Amino acid sequence: MSATLTDIRITPLSPRFAAEVVGLDLREPLDDVTRAELYDAFVQYHVLCFRDQHLDQDEQVAFSEQFGPLERHTLRNRGKINPLVHVVHNLNDDSKPSGKVKSTGWHSDKSFRPEPSLATILHAVTMPPDGGDTVFADMIAAYEALPEAEKRALGGVRVIHSWELSRENRGRVMSAEEAADAPPNSHPLVRTQPESRRKSLFMGEHCSHIDGLPIEEGRARLEKLEEFATQERFTYRHKWRAGDMLMWDNRCLLHRADPNFDAARFPRVLHRTCLRGTAPI
After folding, report:
1. Is the pLDDT of residue 258 over 60?
2. Less crowded by CB within 10 Å, the N or C end of the chain?
3. What structural domains and CATH numbers belong to the chain?
């Protein structure tokens, strides 16, 4: 049976942004009113944490698709895995903790696509007893904190987002097939949120350079801007609990995994789905 709005509590998790949602079993379909209420909260808080969820892969896909079509993933997991689910983990080929944690740089998921991701939905399957946090930075708040002269200077600036370059920076050379599947794309550095009409920065480690500038000069400017935008005053740190499922807005957030746990001893496994977005404006 679907929950009603009177059963659901949405409570802020920090003074900055993010909220928790309790009173829902996401294995059950949402009615239209509840779905609209959740989407409004998603726009308002940027991060929603659904507590005490226990979904398998197909159930996670079914929940996610209630908010729109899902984006395919560039990397394919081995084994019996729903192709719309990407398994985020620190395991080696023997399914033992490898000591390595991926996605520790600030980024927006699938920003290199022509239509970058609207939202990521990430479900904790196996987490370390402590640590393994996910940290978010609010790009609306960061943009609004910039001096007015810098805001004007950033208007009309476009950035090349490249999956290939970001993988090379992580020490992995992509195959020709992967490169053809995810070619670079140009997006505005300052994008407008369609619901609120507020502006935000749109960047992260998938960015290659500023379009029209020498590559090194453009990268230096992006690095300086990212350093400003990811100050603690713009961030929220999510400390995972068993059963948490997060849904966050890739249009106005950067995020990263924090390797603040013994990754050679403890597994960290999460299931990820990504909602397809629209071309930034």
Report:
1. yes
2. N
3. 5-275 (3.60.130.10)
